[in-house]
Amino acid sequence: MAERNDPGAILRHFSLGGIEPDPAQRLVAQQLARLLAAVTADAGQRASGRGGRGIFLWGGVGRGKTRLVDAAVAALPPGLACRWHQLAFLDAFHRAFAGPARHDFAAAIDRLVGQARLLAFDEFHIHDIADAQILRRAFGYLATRGVRLLVTANPPPAGFAAEGERQRHFAPLIEHLSAWCESIELDGGVDYRRLHRPLGQRWVAPDTAAARVQLMVDLENISPRIATASFDDLCRRPRCHGDYARQLDAASALALWNVPRFGERDGDALRRLVWLADVLWERQVPLAITAAETAESIFLGIGDALRRMLGRDLARAESRLIALSALSAERPTAASAGP
187 vs 131, 172, 338, CA distance in Å? Predict the structure, then answer.
């Protein structure tokens, strides 16, 4: 077996498709390789007491965090790691807790993580008090099982500090992550999802019948399984992350019509758009969009309060929507679940 503290295996998986890692990504790969070496050593021992430290990988959008994590998971022998997007993890937890686990918290988490010794947890964020409490309890329980964490996020753990009463509920989770994960920043200064933006991108403003016809022709050249929906249908009705995942099960491309220019009262719709963008990105679903504005200006009118609340999530969603509207072919679905 190759030496697990050698970043070569991670970089080989990272470079699939001809992508050349930049110096910042190479440095993080070395740090991830040391984590993989520890996970491999853990696998040869019986789980006892607290687990070892993991990594909290943070930085700006489009820097390659998710790709590095996926490469690290792929570099481990099967079964040693499981990977979850946070929203998919929470959705699966609720279904397991109310179903097969019969309201046994530990049993529900065991169903999601199995015998893995590393939980790769993508797109960590906290806005909801109940989610924060679930994750704090889940991470604490996994630590007692000897499971290490590999978490990605845009800000560092301290960046999730909340105001007022919410801080009391968020603090235990943030303190746990700070104590049990090494905080590592990845930021080479480039959003790679924007860097090579092609001229023929499928984001058209304004929304017209002619634009929709041409975009459908473009998508049909990519995939025969195209879902179509208006923005209002997808994002102005009560939905959760799991609803989008289930709705897109049978589709390998999405045409999204009539995305508006957002204002200060669009917080709920914007939150759902963030969830939709995350699901599409996880599955690498080619996207076509008609909108009232270009991608660069569509969020300009949301106001300071909404920008403070959703700013990082919106930046991620915008970057991902732009990249997906330029995706030229179907790609394999990213592994989003554990055993």
Answer: 28, 27, 28
Sign of CA dihedral 123, 191, 215, 209: positive
In angstroms, what CA-CA distances link 246 with 28, 88, 215, 239, 322?
A: 34, 11, 24, 11, 23
- The total of other beta-carbon atoms located within 10 Å of residue 182's CB is 13
What confidence category does residue 329 fall into, taking pLDDT thresholds of 50, 70 and 90? Answer: low
Task: List the alpha helices (DSSP H) in 199-292.
Answer: 209-220, 231-235, 241-247, 267-283
- CATH number of the structural domain 8-185: 3.40.50.300
pLDDT at residue 52 in the model: 86
Judged by DSSP in three states, 291 sits in strand
Question: 316 with 270: CB under 8 angstroms?
Answer: no
Task: Report the alpha-carbon distance of residue 321 to residue 270 in Å, rounded.
Answer: 13
Contact yes or no for 285/252 (Cβ under 8 A): yes
Same topology between domain 8-185 and domain 193-324: yes
Extended beta strands in 53-209, E state = 54-58, 81-85, 118-122, 148-153, 181-185, 203-204
Considering the four listed CATH numbers 3.40.50.720, 3.90.190.20, 3.40.190.80, 3.40.50.300, the one that applies to the domain covering 193-324 is 3.40.50.300
Distance between CA atoms of 256 and 170, rounded to whole angstroms? 35
Average pLDDT of the chain is: 88
Domain boundary assignment for the chain: 8-185, 193-324
